[in-house]
Design goal:
Helices cover 48% and strands 8% of the residues. By secondary structure, the chain is mainly alpha-helical. It has one domain (7-134).
């Protein structure tokens, strides 16, 4: 269902985590994610091909359902970093809120969604897209110059 090219770049492996931006920003966690260093950067890989396919399906649904609200390009076209971050972080937060889950673990959220709704398409998409649209990135911390008082 998911177009693999949408989720990986030329430098990432086929097991690259679909929600790596959300994990690297520390807005969510995943029990199946494995972080490793590649050259001068961190990459996150999924340890389960089946779970990765489920995440790819969720990512496609998030993009499809939020496309109008966020003015996103058509599937298969590149996303700006800010849009990708909003889709991942805001989308996963929306799923977490819709499910009433206490912990933002991607793999667990998808499991709960399958248990409650039978599939990811049965999720309450209207509330998820609303939460996704409200999501804002954390503002960077202001650092004071050395020798200045707060």
């Amino acid at each position: 269902m998911a177009d693999e090219g949408t989720f990986t770049s030329c430098c990432e492996s086929a097991s690259a985590c679909v929600f790596a931006k959300a994990l690297l920003s520390r807005s969510t966690v995943c029990e199946l994610a494995q972080r490793r260093a590649l050259a001068e950067r961190d990459i996150i890989e999924c340890t389960s091909p089946v779970a990765r396919m489920n995440c790819a399906t969720l990512a496609v649904l998030l993009h499809e359902r939020a496309r109008f609200k966020l003015h996103l390009p058509r599937p298969g076209q590149p996303l700006m970093h800010a849009h990708a971050l909003r889709l991942q972080c805001g989308g996963l937060l929306g799923v977490q809120l819709a499910l009433g889950a206490a912990r933002p673990d991607v793999h667990q959220l998808i499991g709960v969604a399958h248990e409650r709704f039978g599939s990811l398409t049965g999720l309450p998409w209207e509330s998820i897209v609303h939460s996704l649209g409200q999501w804002q990135p954390r503002r960077p911390r202001r650092t004071l110059a050395p020798g200045t008082a707060s």
